[in-house]
Amino acid sequence: MIVIPGVLGSELINPKTGETVWPSAFRTSQEGLPMSPDLAANRDDLVPGKIIETVKLARVLPEVYVYRDLLDALRRYAGYRQGDWENPGAGDYQDTVYVFPYDWRQDNVRNARELVRRIERLKSRLQRPDLKFNVVAHSMGGLIARYAAMYGDADLPEGDGPIQPTWAGAAHISKIVMIGVPNEGSTDAFATLIEGYSITEGLRRRVPLLNKLTAQDVVRTPSVFQLMPHRGAVRFLDENLQPLALDLYDVDVWKRYGWSVIYSSPDFRRNYIGAAGTDGGNGKSEELDAYLAATLRRALRFHQALDSVENSNSPVVLLAIGGDCEETLSAPVILRDEKRNRWLTLTRPREFRTSSGAKISKKQATNAMFAPGDGRVTRTSLLGETLFKHRDTQTGFTLSHYAVFGCDLHGQLPRNKSVQDNALTAIVGEVMN
């Protein structure tokens, strides 16, 4: 078995200093990935460490359990032992779990290709060329697993033409158990690009800890863009809570509405351009816009690759496990602030008045903006319902072959006993069959 964590779920280490940059109690000197239009060149020295089982950022804060309970369930109750990718034992292909930590900031295709390469090397070391793995993946880890299964070690094709899956990764992967995976994207990821993201938001403490990715951090993180809603699943609402057609992947739309610190923060843009050197900043300014445009194009292309499925009869079995009882952002509201001559994008419901003076209550806004899910991923996105609805309303297909829903928040799903039981049952079922 292979376990793949979600975004933020792997340590990031500076190999030169040995410093753990993520998670860390205090911010470091690391600025984040470079932002150039040459996306493949945007690298730094950080490398992935271990999967994050627990986090304790400071004495005053409680320990945050991340993947410990899931791994404990596999070890204690299912009899799995931890495997070593580089030095596997002769029999480490049965009842063995391999954990795949990765640099969650990077492009998901890059990480999917690395997953395939590591599996190929492992199979070679085990001398088991026909070996297949079951994968348990949380959140973004499920997108990495799906791409690996559909395309193997292939990059996204150039151009804008159709993408046809080869299912090259099916030679390595038997099942993918998807826990809270945003198969049609997450509107919450779009909100994160505007506002940043806190991993300890429930504590409500104002302390200078690296428990929050700021908007400045997130804009340097290509993977978050790839978590946004897929083009067919994008929903925005106008001031009357009616559908508003916007192209989320058009950089001019981002400019118009002031999305991300690239356009909403003059200080961020000024500081970035200030590093341009002798060209007065003009070249650096254009590079920043080109970076965003390239990142949006790459995200859109990644979505097109994942969406290229005809029905649920794929050679890799997909099993969906998620939450469907939490209010989950599905459609932000766009308002005009005439006093300040700017647009407002609401990702949290509140009472407001329309330009005609009509009052929209917080309850009305909530009902329009939210959908059932786990607080970050909607039920619809996990199942890929929009994808199949747009193709054929008669089939009734969803992306997964099997789905189970419980009541828990996105980050807590791997700790949920019911989720763990269903994941193990789904995997053991293959052996029983």
Model description:
The chain is of the alpha/beta class. The protein has one domain: Rossmann fold (3-Layer(aba) Sandwich), CATH 3.40.50.1820. Helix content is 32%, strand content 18%. The protein has helices at 68-77, 108-126, 140-151, 187-195, 215-218, 222-225, 251-257, 261-264, 266-274, 282-307, 362-369, 379-383, 385-391, 417-432, and strands at residues 2-4, 10-14, 19-22, 47-51, 54-55, 64-65, 81-82, 96-99, 133-138, 173-179, 197-198, 212-213, 317-323, 326-329, 333-337, 342-346, 352-353, 359-360, 370-373, 402-406. The strands form 7 sheets. It has a 7-stranded parallel β-sheet, with helices on both faces. Strands 3-2-4 form a 3-stranded antiparallel β-sheet, with no helix packed on it. It has a two-stranded antiparallel sheet with strand order 5-6. β9 (133-138), α3 and β10 form a beta-alpha-beta unit. α2 (108-126) crosses α3 (140-151) and α9 (266-274) crosses α10. The protein is globular. The two termini are 17 Å apart. 41% of the residues are buried. The model is unreliable at 200-211 (pLDDT under 50).
